[in-house]
Write a structure and sequence with these properties.
Structural class: alpha+beta
Number of helices: 11
Shape: globular
Helix content: 25-40%
Largest sheet: 9 strands, mixed
Oligomer: single chain
Distance between the termini: 52 Å
């Protein structure tokens, strides 16, 4: 495991694209976006004896004050990484050993990772369910190593993936009848989708704040999002799509794309004109745009942890199901600590802090909404 002195964003991004399972949350731009929230990004690689690249990881570190001068706790996070072949039975133990030793050397309370390792596909308990023996074996190995499943899941554990290799006609015909109907309804009723520009970012943030209030989730301040979106747009790793009715924006999304996979990571909409189904047409155009960009997979970014109506993601999931994607269940986030006492205190305190932050955040959301 070697710290890499990265000379340019393209150097790092080009490097990780050579590896299996590179994720957009492992890119240079994602690491830089976290600096504003107090994280420090660092880039590590693994090589064989001949210097050939085997694996890579963007690891974020953060110091958290404990209220006394000069005293702090250090935490580490590897978002959707490392990037490597997780089926390589010789390489994986080496990576895990190094991550554990790294956490120890850094005197971190814990290191968290949530790699895109599938545990299975389809809905548990249904005839579509299929487990991944490799994913389940790795999960068991994590437990044996002392890693702990984290209640603090930074990213969605599960998602819905659409295979983009069929033709547009085949993709459309494979969707549920109601989804196809709503796409055509939006087209007939005059909904139009256009590519957005940097000048639209302020408007999209206001729409995102409106969405957050309506759906009850917390967002950060405007500068964080507009800066993040702008950086990925300028790097050629994102596109904006906006649904309009009579020239007025009613819905939008930021389409992130990297290493052949596009992702619906940010979506926003107004209450007006929802009966015209602008979000259905917006997703269809995201699929078409993704194919035009050469992507082989479209990630709808999020599915329930529990696949019934008790899960807050259930309504959104039913919407996504209509596009005939494959429900994919991932390993989720796991923590490794060599300081169990501090880890216990941290994990007991964090939920209370997050609950307070969510309450304050929702109040701030209401202030940010459109008049």
């Amino acid at each position: 495991m070697r710290l890499l002195d990265v000379q340019s964003p393209t150097q790092w991004n080009d490097l990780i694209q050579k590896l299996p399972s590179p994720h957009i949350l492992q890119t240079w731009e994602w690491g830089q976006s976290k600096i504003k929230n107090g994280w420090t990004p660092a880039h590590y690689i693994w090589e064989d004896d001949q210097g050939a690249l085997l694996a890579a990881a963007l690891i974020l570190s953060r110091k958290i004050s404990v209220g006394l001068p000069g005293l702090f706790l250090k935490v580490l996070y590897c978002p959707k990484g490392p990037s490597l072949d997780w089926t390589d039975q010789a390489l994986v133990p080496r990576i895990m050993d190094d991550l554990q030793n790294f956490a120890r050397d850094q005197k971190a309370v814990f290191i968290k990772m949530d790699p895109d390792v599938p545990l299975g596909w389809g809905v548990p308990g249904s005839n579509t369910n299929q487990d991944s023996p490799e994913g389940l074996a790795f999960q068991a190995d994590l437990k044996n190593r002392g890693w702990r499943f984290s209640e603090d899941q930074i990213q969605f554990r599960n998602t819905v993936l659409i295979d983009l290799t069929p033709s547009e006609d085949q993709l459309l015909s494979a969707m549920k009848q109601k989804t196809r109907y709503n796409i055509h309804l939006a087209q007939r009723k005059g909904v139009r989708v256009r590519l957005g520009q940097e000048a639209d970012l302020g408007m999209l943030y206001q729409m995102y704040a409106t969405t957050a209030v309506r759906d009850g989730f917390v967002i950060r301040h405007e500068e964080y999002y507009t800066s993040l979106w702008r950086d990925f747009l300028r790097a050629g790793l994102a596109h904006i799509l906006i649904s309009e009715v009579a020239g007025q924006p009613v819905a939008g999304l930021i389409l992130f794309h990297f290493a052949g996979i596009s992702r619906y990571m940010f979506g926003m909409s107004l209450e007006t004109q929802r009966e015209l189904m602008p979000n259905y047409l917006l997703q269809w155009e995201a699929i078409r745009t993704s194919k035009a960009l050469g992507c082989h997979t479209y990630d709808l970014w999020g599915a329930p942890d529990v696949f019934d109506q008790s899960d807050t993601m259930w309504g959104v999931y039913r919407f996504k199901e209509g596009f005939n994607g494959l429900t994919t269940r991932h390993l989720g986030a796991w923590d490794y600590t060599t300081r169990p006492g501090l880890y216990h205190s941290y994990t007991q305190t964090l939920p209370k802090i997050l609950a307070l932050m969510r309450t304050r955040g929702k109040a701030e959301n209401r202030k940010r909404t459109l008049p």
